[in-house]
């Protein structure tokens, strides 16, 4: 998303569907940012103010992922990775609770909707977590170690060499 100081190393390990992992990590943050912003509006409208700080914290962690890409600092990926796993575990507990409530009450459609939305959100979070983890690993292996700078200085371009 941001122009790196030196061109990224292009290898099959550092991309998904032809898109470099750093760019993909930044792009994956956009739907999460929009979703968190809508959640804040939803919590205000339903007067559930308790949940607003969690969404604000999540937006801060999303900004940290973007900053990690911009400033090439892999440790800035860690808050998002940690919060995503904690959030995922909380969602699993929440889904279990809704499945239990589904069996003991008559309000089936409400709980089924919440369960389906939670599962879809969890799948997206896990996919995003994996992308951000791979971007962090790339950043540590290639950018922090200086391989990107050596690659740019050595060839003058960013070519994949056969090993």
From TrEMBL:
Keywords: Membrane, Transmembrane, Transmembrane helix. The chain crosses the membrane at residues 21-44, 50-68, 75-99, 111-132. This is Uncharacterized protein. It comes from Panagrellus redivivus (Microworm).
């Amino acid at each position: 998303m941001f122009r790196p100081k030196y061109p990224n190393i292009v290898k099959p390990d550092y991309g998904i569907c032809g898109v470099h992992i750093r760019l993909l990590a930044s792009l994956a943050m956009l739907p999460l940012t929009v979703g968190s912003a809508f959640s804040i509006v939803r919590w205000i409208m339903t007067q559930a103010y308790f949940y607003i700080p969690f969404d604000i914290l999540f937006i801060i962690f999303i900004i940290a992922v973007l900053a990690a890409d911009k400033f090439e600092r892999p440790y800035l990926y860690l808050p998002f990775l940690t919060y995503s796993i904690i959030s995922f575990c909380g969602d699993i507990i929440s889904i279990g609770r809704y499945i239990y409530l589904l069996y003991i009450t008559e309000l089936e459609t409400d709980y089924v909707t919440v369960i389906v939305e939670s599962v879809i959100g969890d799948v997206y979070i896990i996919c995003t977590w994996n992308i951000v983890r791979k971007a962090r690993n790339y950043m540590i292996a290639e950018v922090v170690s200086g391989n990107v700078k050596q690659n740019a200085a050595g060839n003058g371009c960013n070519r994949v060499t056969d090993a």
